[in-house]
Amino acid sequence: MKSPIIDQVGVEERVARFNTRSIKKESKVQGLKIAINMIDLTTLEGKDTVGKVRQLCYKAQHLHVDIPGIPTAAAVCVYPTFVKLAKQELGNSGVKVASVATAFPSGQSTLAVKIADTKFAVDSGADEVDMVISRGEFLSGNYNFVFDEIAEIKSACGNARLKVILETGELATLDNVRRASEIAMRAGADFIKTSTGKIQPAATQPVTLVMLEAIRDYYYETGIKIGMKPAGGISTAKVALQYLVMVRETLGNDWLNNQYFRFGASSLANDILMQLAKEASGVYQGGDYFSKD
Amino acid sequence: MSRIEILKTYKLYIGGQFPRTESGRYYPLLDKKKNVIADVCLGSRKDFRNAVVSARGAFNSWGGRTAYNRSQILYRIAEMLEKRKSEFIEEIILQGGNKADAKKEVELSIDRLVYYAGWCDKFQQIFSSVNPVASSHFNFSVPEPTGVVAIVAPQDSSLIGLVSLIAPIIAGGNVCIALASEKMPLCSITFGEVLATSDVPAGVVNIITGKTSELISHMSSHKDVNALVYGGKDQKEIKLVKENATLNVKRVFVYQNNWNKTESQNPYFIFDTQEIKTTWHPIENIGVGGAKY
Amino acid sequence: MSTKTKTTNKPKLDFTSGWGYTPSPESTDHIKLEKRYDHFINGQFVKPAGGKYFPTINPATEKQISEVALGDARDIDKAVKAARNAYEKVWKNMPGAERGKYLYRIARIIQERARELSVIETLDGGKSIRESRDIDIPLAAAHFFYYAGWADKLEYAFPNRKVESVGVAGQIIPWNFPLLMAAWKIAPALACGNTVVLKPAETTPLTAMKLAEIFRDAGLPPGVVNIVNGDGIAGAALVNHPGIDKVAFTGSTDVGKIIQKAIAGTNKKATLELGGKAANIIFEDAAIDQAVEGIINGIFFNQGHVCCAGSRLFVQEGIADLVIRKLKDRMQTLIVGDPMDKNTDIGAINSKEQMNKINEYLKIGVAEGAEMWQSNCQIPKTGYYCRPTIFLHASQSHRIVQEEIFGPVLAIQTFRTVDEVVEKANNTPFGLSAGVWTDKGSKIFNLTTKLRAGVIWANTYNKFDPTSPFGGYKESGFGREGGLHGLMPYVNLK
Predict the structure, then answer these.
(1) For C280-322, what is each residue's pLDDT tens digit?
(2) What ipTM describes this predicted complex?
(3) Which one of B43, B90, B286, C460 has the minimum C-beta count within 10 Å?
(4) CATH number for domain C279-458, candidates 3.30.470.20, 3.40.309.10, 3.90.650.10, 3.30.565.10
(5) Distances from the Cα of C370 to the Cα of A130, C357, C404, angstroms
(6) Are the beta carbons of C293 and A34 separated by less than 8 Å?
(7) What is the CATH number of domain C36-274+474-493?
(8) Closest to B285 (Cβ–Cβ): which among A9, A172, A207?
(9) CATH number assigned to the domain comprising residue A58
């Protein structure tokens, strides 16, 4: 399969240039509100409990009561076993339930297990499924295997939107990131996503740019808008705004909403809230004034 | 009855051929006793123009040959000159030289060719550089031949001045048109015969006889000539050459060396008719110690 | 329910509505500028002999910033004498290591005052603060730092030769990179033991005057660098002054030829860095998105006021539609406007004169039948601004393809084969630079060997570094600036 070539140094130069954008005042406030509404609040730990998921669901709907006009998070992202609970907790708030599936995070299991995993999540009420690709197969050059697997999971998703996690930290090169993006989009992904959060590095700006460019080319070719989700490692408001700049100048404003762009992050929300509180009050904020869930 | 000697007709050397001047003009070359030694072609501006066309046509192939190949061809010129040494000595004597000096001049000319033959695949290493730029790029600078070079050979010698100017210019991959010494033109055309039998491709060296005063303004103003090397001493001519050179930003070099000295040879004569080309290319920076995706 | 939206028309990206960037102007509060600047001769700021001054204008607002001494032959004479005196008595015989220390000091002070210098460069010349902050000023400091280290190592630069300084160098610099060009000229000259008379460009004299303050504050001996402001009259007086040994000029090919002619009857050495009309060549197998960025950097960097700008784009036919589509989308994201705004990509055209020249070429391009396309960004009502412009379906014989426009104007042609594009790329009297974009290494080396230009950017464009020699083939001039080769114009080899 032919995939466009990527020059790493050129990508990094482009990213450096995005990062010279100076986002101040109204633009900053507006950008931060957009960003916070794109967050998939995430908890994906072995030690997750009912209590933890409940707290997170509450937080997603009530990010910070002291600042008026703060939107909700986009979604709460949990393991399949917590989907039902999360769905109950979130009710009609508009906050979506996303579930990882397909033997997350390694993806090392049989297709049957992955399909069952997916169906369980969807049947439990998941609005979105975050699957992982088989990186071992990808790196061995078995691109058809990767493609077919995504297509199978897509059909198991029914109406749920499918986010395909490339786990770019294991793909080694930007050329591979681009190729994996192409495969995922063509196999039926609604979103492409960088990382599980379990592998370092997780989301980076160069990787995200390459994926955004893949989305752009796919849109040029088909008119279909694919969403983008960088996940893991984005923890400050400043960096979140830099991602928004990348989206704005690569795909334009149609992608600057949570239908097409998400941040997979847990600590980002509070940093954005602190910045928004600072902009509103003119006073630098402290961590103790924002809930940690 | 003694045998009637066959006299040599001296013609021009253009594009590997020995044509008469298109102008049909000649000037008589006289010995000390005012006897005619030979009728010498009085080359015209059209002869020069034709020579430039030949030279330009030969440039890509000569400049594009391997340095090793050029080196062998220059060495071949020396070999051929060595074998025809006596002929050149005779011609120098005919033009007023004494026997000892004539022999020395021809031998020095041969040695000079060998000297520059050796430089063909070495000067690049002396004048190149790898430049440690402060970004992720590989950057290097190499000499490349300037192109078509016009030569005004020194007046005061028949062979050594001409050889000393031609050798570094063609060693560097340039092509040239040389105007021979007006006073002592004989060796130049015989040298053309040596070149013609030394694997030097047609057009690489072109030799014209004639009057400097008549040709110099055309040589220096011709817009397809990239550089001019002037071996004379006339200040008015130097000024004229430099002024005309501005028409196409021609490079002008004035040499007033004593070519009979062994130290009048060095790679800086090659460097003069070289352009420095700098090339940049990104260096991917992934893996050990570098970026990770 | 399908979550995918499919548009029926050709999919378009929207770069105008929604979230945008509010103005973010760089603060100018800490900048101190005098109402009037004189010449800098023999370590002093001295009034012009003719007593005349000319205004220097901020091209972004068309308002006067300051006024500057109008030099003539008398000022030049005074400056050359000061330079000669400093050369003979101080600089020529100073140990290289000591000369180097002055250059290091200068580099450091430029770094310390970088913010101030960036702001002034942008005020005076109209270039975006992003570029003066990130490129011009840091590179200027780096040039002094690089050549500082050469001052005591010259004997290693030229094998088997003895290195001598040349004497007094007369240097004339252009308005597109005022401080950077001053650094390119002054740093190697001083490192090699020469003294300098510099004439800054008429429209951008201010950072040179700030540089004079830096020389003074660095304790550089009086007369080692002299700066005479003015127009072509001062420039001509400098070139023709019998007391200079070397001319270094960066500017147009027309003026370069006049200079070359003016010094024809002398033994003055010369370096000429003249115009260009570079080919930027994109092959089908290139990294397209990075190539598009290279096209943008190639032609819109510094409003296109760049002698090595990639002003002729050659795109291989199979990818032409895609590349042009991407290029147009990218151009829509370029912000044109107040140069002092940190988000501005393309600042003000340097002068009214240059603005008129660019507008003239836009008319010519249209009249010649090329298809003009401009991004639909907002541009300020006052000041000199030009939207980023491309001409599609340009031909080799069009004037917009042959002549240097020196503005944000790109002429686009397509090609089919390597032979064809090499022939077209070289089919110009210029030969300063070129760009090649392909993922195939052997093709890069084929192209870089065949393109007749002094700087080849392969899979990158408009990169500069003090260690990297820069200069042209053919009518783009001769001599190199930067790197080891940049020493050559400032030494005599024995």
Answers:
(1) 999 999 999 999 999 999 999 999 999 999 999 999 999 999 9
(2) 0.96
(3) B286
(4) 3.40.309.10
(5) 50, 18, 16
(6) no
(7) 3.40.605.10
(8) A9
(9) 3.20.20.70
